[in-house]
Backbone:
């Protein structure tokens, strides 16, 4: 270890925020989907565990979804949800295996991690807000919001609607940081 390295104190919540922010940077740079998924899953699980101790709202993908599934459905969903996450962290049983996974699943988990962080802290750091706007613009049909709320969000970020993912953060983040109340 380098003698100039300093120890840092990190809370679980701070670790989750840091992981989400790095995952967002990877996402907008179209960088490694395995690392993106691993960081997203780690932050998601931290936020889920913290939420359960704070009596905060449950998270959908790994908690509430189970309310709507049969026992067999729960098994299939859980296996699918955790398959890539576990494959990327463990090699105790499947050292010679390959995995084909959908990197698009990371987008949903990342959005939910950003949303849950804001719920339990009452704050929405700029990178998390940036990702939430991006996700909303691309998946508006998933949201059941009053039209005035949808219109407000779309009007804030309409100019960025056609930006490629790789340009979105560079173009939009500086503008958003100038408007802290939005």
Residues:
């Amino acid at each position: 270890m380098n003698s100039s390295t300093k120890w840092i104190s990190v809370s679980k919540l701070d670790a989750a925020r840091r992981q989400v922010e790095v995952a967002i940077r990877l996402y907008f740079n179209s960088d490694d989907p395995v690392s993106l998924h691993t960081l997203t899953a780690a932050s998601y699980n931290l936020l889920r565990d913290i939420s359960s101790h704070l009596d905060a709202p449950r998270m959908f993908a790994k908690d509430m979804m189970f309310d709507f599934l049969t026992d067999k459905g729960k098994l299939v969903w859980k296996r699918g949800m955790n398959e890539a996450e576990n494959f990327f962290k463990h090699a105790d049983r499947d050292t010679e295996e390959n995995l084909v996974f959908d990197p698009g699943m990371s987008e949903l988990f990342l959005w939910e991690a950003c949303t849950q962080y804001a719920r339990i802290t009452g704050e929405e750091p700029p990178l998390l807000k940036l990702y939430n706007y991006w996700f909303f613009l691309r998946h508006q049909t998933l949201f059941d919001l009053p039209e005035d709320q949808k219109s407000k969000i779309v009007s804030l970020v309409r100019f960025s609607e056609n930006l490629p993912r790789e340009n979105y953060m560079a173009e939009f983040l500086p503008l958003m940081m100038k408007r802290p109340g939005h």
